[in-house]
């Protein structure tokens, strides 16, 4: 079986996705391995540990010097992704995660039409839209650095109501923040923060108020009435048991220019959108099929 690995190096978690048969009519997501990201040392350590975890799940992946390995990174947000000393043969440079997600969004646009993607992370919530409506730019990404659900959770909580959060989760609510929440209380807090991040980020994206990061375009009132699909991705969102409900309720609560009723709201249940974005050029059809499967969309 032809195998391909894609590593996603985040500030908190490193994930390695293994794919098989990408050039065939039956592409496969073989499994995922995860590890904490090592920031103070060599990021390659976290990558090696994630590969080890992957092999615990699916068995040996084979000779890593011969398997194509691609990588994305969200560690550096305002500069090129870091060069990382890893003991593998990476196919090209490490791609910024935002670029990979935009490439996946572009694939959706080419296949379906106008698309909106919401990526919820620990440091920020990013919103991407590709639309051909009017004279507005085709592609827009907004980055809301005050809407992270773990690293920048304090800023997000202040947008919500810090007093209410303390009342519901205690004075030391920050101790409940986890990249992968497990207890009912941790999950409840993560879900509340994620819902708020989606709603606020979407509202900003569709207006001229893009938050502390500043606008990336001279767009005033992004018109999203022709959007065909809304997709949610990012570990903070996709790992929650009620991800789809969170997205639906958060989108419903915003006063934006999205079409009313009938628009598919999807979420990347396998959290592989960034990985597949890297693969859109070498394995376009395989990436498209696996995206649809992760979204729960029938062929």
Provide an overview of this structure.
- By secondary structure, the chain is an alpha/beta fold.
- It has 2 domains: about 120 residues, 2-Layer Sandwich (Nucleotidyltransferase, domain 5); about 170 residues, Nucleotidyltransferase, domain 5, CATH 3.30.420.
- Helix content is about 35%, strand content about 20%.
- The strands form 2 sheets. It has a 5-stranded mixed sheet. A 5-stranded mixed sheet has the order 8-7-6-9-10, sandwiched between helices.
- A hairpin with an 8-residue loop joins β7 and β8.
- α5 packs parallel to α7.
- The radius of gyration is 19 Å and the shape is globular.
Uncertain runs are 78-82, 209-219
Question: How many DSSP H or I helices?
Answer: 9
Shape: globular
Q: How many separate structural domains?
A: 2
Tell me the structural class.
alpha/beta
CATH fold-level label of the largest domain: Nucleotidyltransferase, domain 5
Overall pLDDT score: 86
Terminus-to-terminus distance: 23 Å
Query: Which CATH-level-2 architecture of the largest domain?
Result: 2-Layer Sandwich
Percentage of residues in DSSP E strands: 15-25%
How is the main sheet built?
5 strands, mixed
Helix content: 25-40%
Give the strand tally.
10
Order of helices and strands: EEEHEEHEEEHHHEHHEHH
